[in-house]
Specification:
The chain has a nine-stranded mixed beta sheet with strand order 2-1-10-9-11-12-13-14-15. Strands 16, 17, 18, 20, 21 and 22 form a six-stranded antiparallel beta sheet that branches. Strands 4-3-5-6 form a four-stranded parallel beta sheet, with helices on both faces. The termini are far apart. With about 525 residues, the chain is α/β, with parallel strands linked by helices. It folds into three domains: about 140 residues, ANL, N-terminal domain (Rossmann fold), CATH 3.40.50; about 220 residues, Rossmann fold (3-Layer(aba) Sandwich), CATH 3.40.50; about 100 residues, ANL, C-terminal domain (GMP Synthetase, Chain A, domain 3, 2-Layer Sandwich), CATH 3.30.300.30.
Length: about 525
């Protein structure tokens, strides 16, 4: 293909052309897949999707854990010019239905354990549903059987570099899920500039990411970067506990380890953490939220490993500002990744020069083309070549960036946007709750969700009720959409117009945290 015509699936072809057909591409708890086998499955998946009636630029939902089936379906869809849309494997039926209807999806490949739950909603939306593995009811043919029935080579569709390659749904600044449209060209920028330029990734590396591939950060870590360099990916199934992550590192010997601040904070505290052998790892990467300096130092002191903290976004596909080997400031988000430009804009709209703070804007070759069905939001966030992040940052004299908070009330928890109104609405549906307000607070300098709850008359707060309210949200919303902390209040602070004063609640929580720290000393 020419420079103007790129198909993301040809990353696998490049590995075969480089003589890597017999090299291990994927390692999961069930099987090991070499590059030649991945290519065979990818082509069979493309042929199978075509047989199901999927055509160029039609959308294919993927509700899958990080397994070889994810790679197979994602790349197979790209191969025929279709557009894969990975979704959180824990998404509810209503959330999946919304994405199906919003995207006009034609087909969906879902984890076998979710098939019974999701198939009715998807079929109502006109979607052909394919379970990844056989299901108990013996209904629809599964992906594994379809691959066997559609063997054979398949040339990639001659997609243009500016054709849509995949979407990633994000709740973003509106609270409503929105499709972030990425093009076939976008992957090259993050692979070249971050994987190659910052990490120095090569075919000798073994990648292990605790962040799932439905998330932009995880997609780069586990799929884009390894395929670009011809490396090996270790796939983690489920949402592992800290001690199981460390066990996996010991067993699979990765060289590049990608995780998030919450896990970097929790892993050293897990049973037997001090005795773990992490000697295979040459670099650790953190993103999704700012890594506190004390967490960086604890990890470094325990394992002698450097964590490169950075900031990225779904809109920019991966990390665009990062600490780098030999240039690390614990607690900062580093400096612009080569190939990206960053500017800070002050309250009056003027650029901040030199040291100072403002709202961060970024531009680079991986920027999303648009938000699907969100024209006004696209115009408000994508300013020509610049993406308006909504994050407030301070730049120091050496060009390092330091996070100062959000420019709105949205919560960013473990790298995923959470709308406070969604949790508040859920809490207020509980029979004992009269009102609720949700804010982000710092717990050991990691962002967590805190709910302030006003109970109905005749009810009193207790630890048992707090646990019940957390579970109430877990049962009705996605796994991350629940309050980690619950505080019962007699009333919520309001403005003169009746709006909840979230800033007052955040200030109250900050004061509580300071007092607790003082008492601990």
């Amino acid at each position: 293909m020419t420079a103007d015509h790129v198909n993301l699936s040809t990353l696998v072809d490049r590995c075969l052309e480089a003589g890597l057909g017999g090299k291990t591409a994927l390692v999961s708890h069930q099987e090991t897949v070499c590059y030649a086998e991945l290519h065979r499955r990818m082509c069979a998946a493309g042929r199978a999707l075509r047989a199901l009636g999927v055509h160029r630029e039609q959308r294919v939902l993927l509700v899958l854990d990080d397994t070889p089936a994810f790679f197979t379906a994602f790349l197979g869809a790209c191969r025929i010019g279709a557009v894969p849309i990975p979704l959180d494997p824990r998404a509810t039926a209503d959330q999946v239905r919304f994405c199906a209807e919003d995207s006009y999806a034609t087909a969906a490949v879902v984890h076998a354990d979710r098939y019974r739950d999701l198939a009715p909603a998807l079929r109502e939306a006109g979607v052909t549903v394919v379970p990844a593995e056989p299901t108990d009811d013996g209904g629809a043919p599964c992906l594994r059987d379809l691959l066997g029935a559609h063997q054979g080579g398949l040339d990639p569709v001659r997609t243009h570099a500016e054709d849509p390659a995949f979407w990633l749904y994000s709740s973003g600044t509106t609270g409503r899920p929105k499709g972030v449209v990425h093009l076939h060209r976008d992957a090259a920028a993050v692979c070249r500039h971050y994987a190659g330029g910052v990490l120095g990734a090569t075919r000798e590396d073994v990648h292990l990411s605790t962040t799932k591939a439905f998330h932009a950060y995880g997609l780069g870590n586990s799929l884009l970067f390894p395929l670009w360099s011809g490396a090996t990916t270790v796939l983690l199934s489920g949402f592992p506990a800290p001690h199981t992550v460390l066990e996996t590192v010991e067993r699979t010997r990765p060289t590049l380890f990608f995780s998030v601040p919450a896990l970097y904070n929790a892993m050293p505290r897990s049973p037997g953490a001090a005795g773990r052998d992490l000697s295979s790892v040459r670099l650790c990467v953190s993103a999704a939220e700012t890594l506190p300096a004390h967490v960086w130092h604890r990890w470094h002191d325990l394992y002698g490993l450097t964590i490169l903290d950075g900031v990225g976004s779904t809109e920019m596909l991966h990390i665009y500002c990062s600490n780098t080997p030999g240039a690390v400031r614990p607690g900062s988000s580093g400096r612009p990744v080569p190939g990206y430009e960053i500017r800070l804009v002050g309250p009056g709209g003027a650029d901040v020069t030199g040291e100072g703070g403002g709202e961060m804007y970024v531009r680079g070759g991986s920027m999303s083309a648009q938000y699907w069905h969100r024209t006004e939001l696209t115009r408000s966030v994508l300013h020509g070549p610049w993406y308006r992040t909504g994050d407030r940052y301070r730049r120091d004299g050496d060009g390092f960036y330091w996070y100062e908070g959000r420019a709105d009330d949205m919560l960013k928890i473990s790298g995923l946007w959470v709308a406070p109104t969604e949790i508040e609405t859920c809490l207020q549906q509980h029979p004992r709750v009269a009102e609720a307000a949700v804010v982000a607070v710092d717990t050991e300098r990691l962002a967590r969700i805190k709910a302030f709850v006003v109970l109905r008359d005749g009810h009193r707060g207790s630890d048992a009720l707090a646990r019940q309210l957390r579970q109430w949200c877990k049962d009705r919303l996605q796994g991350r959409h629940y309050p980690h902390l619950v505080e019962f209040a007699a009333a919520l602070p309001r403005t003169t117009t009746g709006k909840i004063r979230r800033s007052a609640l955040r200030g109250r929580s900050a004061e509580d945290t300071r007092n607790a720290a003082a008492r601990a000393r």
